[in-house]
Amino acid sequence: MRVDVIVAVVTQASLAAKNATKTIPIVMLAVGDPVGAGLVASLAQPGGNITGTSFQNVEVAGKSLELLKNAIPKARVVAVLWNPANPVYQAQMVKATEAAARALGIQLRLLAARDANEVDKAFTTMTGERTDALVVIVDPLFTAAPTPTRIAALAVTSRLPSISAFREYAEAGGLMAYAANFAERGRRTAVYVDKILKGTRPGDLPVEQPTTFDLVINSKTAKALGLTIPQTLLLRADEVIQ
Amino acid sequence: MRLIGLAVVLTVSLILAPLTAEGQQAEKMYRVGLLSPTTQVSVSKPFGGVCGPWATLKVAISFSSSAQQRGDLIGCLN
Question: What is the ipTM for the molecules in this complex?
Fold first, then answer.
């Protein structure tokens, strides 16, 4: 099937599209770190046949851990749920989270999950050893329904405050989410498609980064965990789910 | 075009503003492939079938909505 433009959602798909064609314009959507993943030469001048919008997850991975630490100041051991089947992006996220953990004096416990069964096993591991909190590294495996609800429920059952970089995680019952707005990124991506179809070369369109990130806190989950979220953190939240 | 390991391609038909030539309107159709690493799910809204579950689907919908707001989107085919 010949298409005029490919919109590639997340790093994994963008890399596959880039490997597949050097002529069809590719517009990335919700990519964590386009330069680090080798998708573009630079954000300002992507070059070639690829451009689009970044989600900037990798850059803000440390911020998520910091927010979690603000919510649970006593946290020393934090589990990280990640998907090794999505190697490039996940490795970027793990590396960024590890760097933040060192600065915050947190010990990370990496728990890999390639499917829903492995998610359950990861929680068994978490509850079997000391774990104070959980970071769910955003991944299509974890964002596809009903997995977010499942992960959020397991986190509550396991008495683990948790955070992830997609706002739907907090809506699904996770304690916190810190992320760029997916819908806004999607709308911006449509503008790229429009420009390219009207003749602009993709490589001439700078990659756009999100300008705002939303902190969402689920106070119902906090209550279920017996947590009192510090007022300073609540005041920073863009949304508190009651 | 062959994309190994990634199965979902949503084809969205777009139409640019009508082109006028000698008093007649000509419509140029474009196809936009939406490539997602997740499995395919069909939904009834907003355009009778969009690929990709949940978060990915939400992006697809917002992408489509934006195009529609500018009057570009006329349909969606799986």
Answer: 0.76
